[in-house]
Amino acid sequence: MGDLLQYFREHSTPAGISRIQFEIIPRLLELFPGRISLFQIGRSSREIEVLTFDEVLRRCDNSAFLARFGHHRTLFNILQFSSSYARAAISALILQLNREGRARFAGEVQAGDVILNLGGAWSHQHFGRSIAELKHDFGVRFAVLIHDVLPLTHRQFVAARFAPFFDRWFDGMTRVWDLVLTPSHSTARALREQLELRGRAVPPIRRIRFGSGFCLPQHSLRECARTHVLYVSTIEIRKNHRLLFDIWKQMISDYGAARVPELVFAGKFGWQIDDLKRDLQATRFLDGKIRVVENLDDAELAALYRGSYFTVYPSFCEGWGLPVGESLHFGRYCIASDATSLPEVGAGFVDHHAPADIKAARRLIEAALFSPGHLDAKEAAIRESYVPRSWRETAGEIVAVISDTLGER
Questions:
Q1: What's the CA gap between 73 and 177, in Å, rounded?
Q2: Which domains does the chain have, with CATH numbers?
Q3: Quick check: 90 pLDDT over 50?
């Protein structure tokens, strides 16, 4: 749980990986009561804290902070930045002073058990070494979900400061993993290629199929008036928001602003997008035709999906592409790039374009906006034939794959 807890010390709303963890973990606990235990590792394998899921939820719950400051961007960012350091220091102190943690862990674990990491522990400086020590001391095996290897295969789209952390983590993983899970065939292929390129042994690699959507109270599922086209993603160079900016600018010029709906970017600003930010500011966000919304809770995000005509996802590369599945889950057609894993998510209900092909992307967007009956036909196909996969099924598949590959203890 360490990487998940760290993420929520620094952020208030889930991104892709943390969203996936929060969908899978409670289903594992529901499906296999008494078989799943949660813990986090501190600076070394000597610092361990066994956790209940209620404790995890409490530490990850930023709803009060989000409700109070979430819509004041500058103040929210300042307070979140300062509080993350204090919370990290407190967490580290708790792990250091928790003398009973490793003893409790030792009392629960048995030889042959499997440590499973579903997140991204690359910020943990000694994660690989800690796992190696736990394997040696307790006779456990280690399985890890590799969401992507983009920092190795698409380094130009990754923040420079992040790459060394990932390199170190990946090298550590190659020394300790017994089983690798991936969400897509694309990621599995890329992983094998990177291991062969580095002369490393290839472990058992098994694809597990992700679920779609997220749980909401029933009253949050009502229909909304449709007003916009939606892109759910951190605003960073890899996600290719520039392509959409250029298309919307062209369409406003060709059709007039009245005929072009609002384009909503749901996500925080990230890295390597200074030129995009300058153009957004210079054009006053295309005179209001582009809107950026951050720090949304799940109900607000669901309302954006339901209030969209359709969604877009022109990313240059992905390990999976969770918002594509979310779009289909909410019954909304999606236009996405054909890069890496994205064709696997769409399952035939999504139309694709090359990420740099602005003409092809514009043709698909214009057809959805202006061709009579086109969008209705796409949505009818989703309603009639799309079968969403549940996160409960994903959790069951993970345990089945671990048992089949590593054997029951």
A1: 40
A2: 2-211+391-406 (no CATH), 218-385 (3.40.50.2000)
A3: yes
